[in-house]
Amino acid sequence: MTKNAGTSAGVRFAAAALTLAVAAVLVQQAVTVMSADRTGVGPLALRNLDESGVSHPTTAVLLNFRAYDTLLEIAVLVIALLGVRASALPRPFETAPAGRMLKSFSHFLVPVLIVAGGYVLWVGSHAPGGAFQAGALLGAAGVVLALAGALPELRAPGTGPVVGLAVFLVLGLQPLFAGDALLYYRGEWAKTVILLIEAGATVSIGWILAGLFMAVHRGDI
After folding, report:
1. pLDDT in tens, 145-154
2. How far, in Å, CA of 144 to CA of 28, rounded?
3. Potential cystine with 134: which of 55, 120, 157, 178 (Cβ 3.0-4.6 Å)?
4. pLDDT at 216 over 90
5. Do residues 147 and 98 touch, judged by C-beta distance below 8 A?
């Protein structure tokens, strides 16, 4: 037991040291780049906004000009959930019997969260919003349903968590067959592609957040 504890402490120390070293390098690089070019890439993104398929610069950067960042973020969330599920014993999600007030409240709140998520997803093309915010709202709806005892059998991994990643990869690979670069979508189809990617990502993010909540509630992590 003592040896295992020591090994575990050593591994944790090594992981923490590696994390701090990587963080220090990233901070140093960020400071260096910002000092060398204070204008950043904002003007460049604004100049090419018409080609992005959306009218909001943040969405254009996250889903078009630097879409691989968002792709990897979704992949990290999927891997996190898969890792939690792989290290946990398969057992159902159990909660204390929900009271009448919580059940009644869930009947009102869940539809509001779903509609709000849809609105935030749609509005992201021309105003602050998008898949991560919409996914958080759907995840909150899943948590409310779970606590109310209406979603006891949600399981992960399943198709839900990987929908967004799969859609992103399929649409992102299509330009390669036309001789363009990976994740290169411009012109009249760009808005449709971005909307499809964000819709898939919303489903995955909501599913993953609800799944992680259930894992914490079960004591898996």
Report:
1. 888 876 655 5
2. 42
3. 120
4. no
5. yes
Q: What is the mean pLDDT of residues 193-198?
A: 90
Find the Cα–Cα–Cα–Cα dihedral 43, 183, 200, 215, rounded to 10°: -90
Query: What's phi and psi for 87, nearest 5 deg?
Result: -95, 0
149: left (phi over 0), alpha (psi -120 to 50) or beta: left
- What contacts 92, CB < 8 A, 6 or more positions away? 152, 153
CA pair distance 212, 81, nearest whole angstrom: 6
What string of H, E and C letters represents the secondary structure of the chain? CHHHHHHHHHHHHHHHHHHHHHHHHHHHHHHHHHHHCCCCCHHHHHHCHHHCCCCCHHHHHHHHHCHHHHHHHHHHHHHHHHHHHHCCCCCCCCCCCCCHHHHHHHHHHHHHHHHHHHHHHHHCCCCCCCHHHHHHHHHHHHHHHHHCCCCCCCCCCCHHHHHHHHHHHHHHHHHHHCCCCCCCCCHHHHHHHHHHHHHHHHHHHHHHHHHHHHHHHHCCC
**What is the pLDDT at residue 82?**
82
pLDDT tens for 1-30 read 444 555 577 788 888 899 999 999 888 877
List phi, psi (to 5°) of 89.
-75, 140
128: pLDDT strictly greater than 80: no
Q: Structure tokens of 64?
A: 């078009």
Contact assessment for residue 118 and residue 198, using Cβ atoms and an 8 Å cutoff: no
Q: Are 154 and 211 in contact (CB under 8 A)?
A: yes
From the list 81, 71, 79, the residue with the least C-alpha distance to 165 is 71
